[in-house]
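Name: Protein arginine methyltransferase NDUFAF7
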Amino acid sequence: MLQMQANRLCVSHRDSGIDMPYNHEGETAGGIKIYWYNDLKKVPNNFSWYIAHEFFDVLPIHKFEHTEKGWREILIDIDEAGKLQYRISANETQSVKVLVRPPLDAGDRMHVEVSPRGLGIARQLASRVDQYGGLALIADYGHDGDKEDTFRAFHKHKVVDPLENPGLSDLTADVDFSQLRIAASMRPGEENYAIVVGPVKQLQFLERLQAEVRLKMLIDSAETDEAKEKVKAAYNMLVDPKQMGERFKFMAFYPSAMSKILDKYPPLGFSTLK
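Structure predicted for Protein arginine methyltransferase NDUFAF7:
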């Protein structure tokens, strides 16, 4: 992925030395320098805009199920034939004790998925935005704490069993935006937190940003009827509720100092135009 990005964006790029905080660097045709970091903690603490597009849905998760004995972790074991299988832990694991507790709210769900890595990154983003300014925009497949078992695998654009052919499929789980909200919001005893807006469905987000205006411009500039139809089809995929319109969602983190400003001027995309 890094090489693909660098080849597309830069006229020259190279790996960085081990003494540098970033692991790759390049320069665009316009002279803009681009750096790749493998750890958010190494990114300079400056005013920044963070965009996490289909990022959180690929992070590792823990799966939990509510049983007669309480919450138990769903583990992966090997059956007698040597194949992978799911197994519910007999007792509370350490993950249950640490992750399935307030402020996380499972509600009426009997099954929850938690990404400790995702929660940690959301917390880092909130702290950075609040201390140094900027914002974080998260766009991903997800829900607002109402779905249960979403762990799945894709191979050649088809849904397959996550336990079959490990290493050959792309694994994913829908992002629980309610958990990201908890991780980024103010909690007792913590100084830095973010104002969290969203999530909103992609359909609503694009409509509120007047995406139809951009659509019309693209259609008008298309030179052939075939090109016009491709633009329409692409737009429909983005807003169709049965495709990406409702499944894809947006959330944003703003500095807590912007509270009064956001009350007066709600961010576009997350509020209706007045």
